[in-house]
Every structure is written in structure tokens, then in C-alpha cells.
Amino acid sequence: MEVDKEKQQAAEEMVKKNVILTKLEDVLNWGRGWSFWPLSFGLACCAIEFMAAGGPRYDLERFGLGVMRPSPRQADLMIVSGTLTRKMAPAVKRLYDQMAEPKYVLSMGSCANSGGPFTDSYAVMPGVDSIIPVDVYIPGCPPRPEAFFYGILQLKQKVQKPAKVRLAKNGK
Amino acid sequence: MENDILQKQMEELALKLNGEYEQSLDIPVLKIKGARISEALLAAKNFNQTPCEILHDVTAVDYPDRNEIEVVYHLSSFTGPYMIRIKATIDRDNPVIDSATKIWAGADFPERECFDLVGVQFSGHPNLKRILLWDDFEGHPLRKDYVVPSIEERKILRAVKPGE
């Protein structure tokens, strides 16, 4: 009897150390935040900075998003890096529609955020958010790889803790 | 040395075609009427000693106060490092000029760009349609009287033609 109780206590402690009880959605979100599959999507000079971020000096692989997908059907993160022209805009919208849910959009650089220096141009879309919903905006012209990583980490927070974002949005 | 020859030939060409000759930053410039552009380009291509057989670019400048459009051709020669410039003035209300595609096949794309942005009609061009902007674009944005649409209009996703 005494031995059984000791065994049971030891087993319970093992369970506490090795088993986590959580919701399936939380586990999936945790995984999503650590393994983005970005659609390689360079539109202008920000793409050069994005390439620098992917190179060995800054090493994008650390954050689990080194696998660039050439097809939107395999991707869940669209990184719009560069000036979006109005001629190009329908193609971007189409690529976004082709991505599988859940999907996230990261707008990189001031051109993608708001049109940047070309806001008043007849040929440039004033901000990518006028055609697709954007999750995280990264300011800069172009942003440094460090700024880009900060944006990625912000997106990771947003994906892994959606409740936090909801609170911040509603001002509670 | 070659520049001297080139200058002399340009001056002769200016006399022959009723044009004006001037020198702008060491580049000989010939100003002529738009109707005589084919003659001028052919003559420049067949210059003695310094034939200007490279067409670098075709551009145009809008002058609304003079009611004119100036089509600018940049040429240079394989035998010398010098450039020449030929400017042809055409009427702004009826901007028609002969295409240079019969003389240089490579004039195709620069002329399409010129049509796209300034609205110069090149008669005899094999495929004169927009090259940089989309087909439904209204107006020619490098004209001085072009009005850029408001930001609300530009935020709307443009319609795509089937097969584009």
C-alpha cells in the first residue's frame, strides 16, 4: 500500500515534468509562429535588403523562415518588399487570394506601407493595404535587416498570442 | 578631329533641311521640322567618315506654351566617341511623325515608350501600343497638362482584361 502511494506520487511528478495540457489551436499557432513559409516576393529595392537578411551575415534561418516558396499555394506569409505599381496590383491581389489560410502579410518599407516617395505618382499604388489586409508594417527606406527581424518577431507574437492582439486592438 | 568633321556635316545638313544648328555642351544639335525627320536620320546614318549608325534613344518633350512637342533622337558613331542630337518639332494638337523603325529596327521600343508617356503618334510603326503603362490607362502622363488622379481613385484596384 505504502509502496503504491510512493509510486503514484513519482508518476504524477513525471507527468508534471513531461506533459503539457493545452488547446490544439494554441499548439498550431505556436508552430506557425516558428515556421513561416514566406512567398518570395521582391518588387523593388527593399528586396535587396531582404536578400541581405537571408544571407549568412544576418541569417533569416534563425527565425525559422528560411524556406522561400516560389508558389503561393505552399506559402502562408507574403512579404511585400518594394513599390507596388498599379499595373502590378491585380497580380498581387491574385497571389494573395491563391494563398492557403491562415495567411499573413508583412509590408516592408515605406513604399509598401503608404507609397513612400511615389505616393503622388500616377503609376504607384498608395500603400499595399488598399488592396490586401496587412498584419505588420515595417518602416524604413529600405528597412535594415534588424528592423525586418523586429517586424518578423512582432508577427510571431501576433500569431502565437492572438488574444493579446485582440486586447490591444480593443484598448483594454 | 572627328568632332570637327561631324560639326561640318551637321551644319551642311542643317542648311539642306532648312534647320537650325547649335552646339549644346559639346554635342552638335540639329533642330528641324517634324516632316523631314526621315531624311535627317538617313543622312546622319550615311555621313561621310563618321556615320552615326547607333540610335541610342527616342524621347520627347512637351512645350504647351509654344503648342509644340519636340521629339529628340540621340545618335552616335562607331568611329568616334561623339554624340549628336536631332530635335524634330511637331504640332501638339496633331502629334504625328514618321517612325524610325524602317531605318533602325531597334527604334521599336523607344518609340512605343514615347507614345505611351507623351502621346506622339509614329506613323509606320508596326506595333504602336502602350509599353510601360497598362492598356486602359487614360492620358499621357509626361504631358505638362496631365492631371494625376486623386489618391482615392488610385487606391481602387484596376480591372484586369481577360488574357492580360
Could you walk me through the main structural features you see in this protein, from its secondary elements to its overall organization?
The complex is a heterodimer of chains A (about 170) and B (about 160). With about 170 residues, chain A is of the alpha/beta class. Chain A has helices at about 1-20, 25-35, 45-55, 90-100, 110-115, 145-160, 160-170; strands at about 40, 75-80, 105-110, 135-140. Chain A has a four-stranded parallel beta sheet. Chain B has about 160 residues and is an alpha/beta fold. Chain B has a five-stranded mixed beta sheet with strand order 1-2-5-4-3. Chain B is elongated. In chain B, about 30% of the residues are buried. The mean pLDDT of chain B is about 85.
Major β-sheet annotation of chain A? 4 strands, parallel
Described by strand count, sense and barrel closure, the largest sheet of chain B is:
5 strands, mixed
Low-confidence stretches of chain A: none
How many individual helices of chain B? 4
Spatial shape of chain A: elongated
Major beta sheet, strand line-up of chain B: 1-2-5-4-3
Question: Averaged pLDDT of chain A, please?
Answer: 87
* Percent range for β-strand residues of chain A: 5-15%
Overall pLDDT of chain B, averaged?
84
In short:
The complex is a heterodimer of chains A (172) and B (164). Chain A has helices at residues 2-18, 24-34, 46-54, 89-98, 109-114, 145-160, 162-170; strands at residues 38-39, 77-81, 104-108, 136-138. By secondary structure, chain A is α/β, with parallel strands linked by helices.
Structural descriptors:
heterodimer, A: about 170 residues, alpha/beta, 7 helices, about 10% strand, elongated, B: alpha/beta, two-stranded parallel sheet
Which helices and strands, and how do they pair?
The complex is a heterodimer of chains A (172) and B (164).
Chain A: H1 2-18, H2 24-34, E1 38-39, H3 46-54, E2 77-81, H4 89-98, E3 104-108, H5 109-114, E4 136-138, H6 145-160, H7 162-170
Parallel strand pairs in A: 1-2, 2-3, 3-4
Helix pairs in contact in A: 2-6, 3-6
Chain B: H1 2-16, E1 20-24, E2 27-33, H2 37-45, E3 54-63, E4 68-76, E5 83-91, E6 96-98, H3 108-118, E7 121-123, H4 151-154
Parallel strand pairs in B: 2-5, 6-7
Antiparallel strand pairs in B: 1-2, 3-4, 4-5
